[in-house]
Amino acid sequence: MEKHRVYAMPFSRIYPLYIQKVEKKGRTKEEVNEIICWLTGYDEQSLYQQIQQEVDLETFFRQAPQINPNASHIKGVICGYRVEEIEDELMRQIRYLDKLIDELAKGKEMQKILRK
């Protein structure tokens, strides 16, 4: 089976786009980091190491310390797909992150974004 092109994208190229998206809506880089760390289990130091090493998205998620068990509670549509119906685990994790960043940009409360 052919890999999706998005898997080879460097996380370091996508990360600033997340920040730019939320800052336009009055949210912060710190909130983006909190979401990424919540979802992946990285702490801020290991997150920045991944960015500096310019790992691709596949490596970023495969090396994640632990995908949050509550990630399965993330529901909704992103890029025309229902995240809970995406069969490919890696693509679902990528879309989880996209969905959380969208929720942040739309002004949702952090408690709700983090499924607490």
Structure, explained:
- The chain has one domain (5-111): uncharacterized protein sp1917 domain (Helicase, Ruva Protein, domain 3), CATH 1.10.8.290.
- It is built from 6 helices and 2 strands, in the order ααααββαα.
- It has helices at residues 11-23, 29-40, 44-52, 57-62, 89-105, 110-113; strands at residues 77-78, 81-82.
- A two-stranded antiparallel sheet has the order 1-2.
- Helix 1 packs parallel to helix 5 (89-105) and helix 2 runs antiparallel to helix 5 (89-105).
Shape: globular
Spatial separation of the terminal alpha carbons: 37 Å
- What proportion of the residues form beta strands (DSSP E)? under 5%
Q: Taking Cα atoms only, what radius of gyration do you get, to the nearest Å?
A: 13 Å
Query: What spatial order of strands do you see in the largest sheet?
Result: 1-2
CATH-assigned homologous superfamily: uncharacterized protein sp1917 domain
Instruction: List unreliable stretches of 5+ residues.
Output: none
- DSSP helix fraction: 40-55%
Reading the helices and strands in chain order gives HHHHEEHH
Tally of separate helices: 6
Strands, count: 2
Total domains, how many?
A: 1
In CATH, the architecture is Orthogonal Bundle
CATH class: Mainly Alpha
What structural category arises from helix and sheet content? mainly alpha
Task: Give the overall pLDDT as a whole number.
Answer: 95
Q: What do we call the CATH topology?
A: Helicase, Ruva Protein, domain 3
InterPro entries: SP1917_dom_sf, UCP033199
Organism: Variimorphobacter saccharofermentans
Pfam family, one: DUF2200
Protein name: DUF2200 domain-containing protein
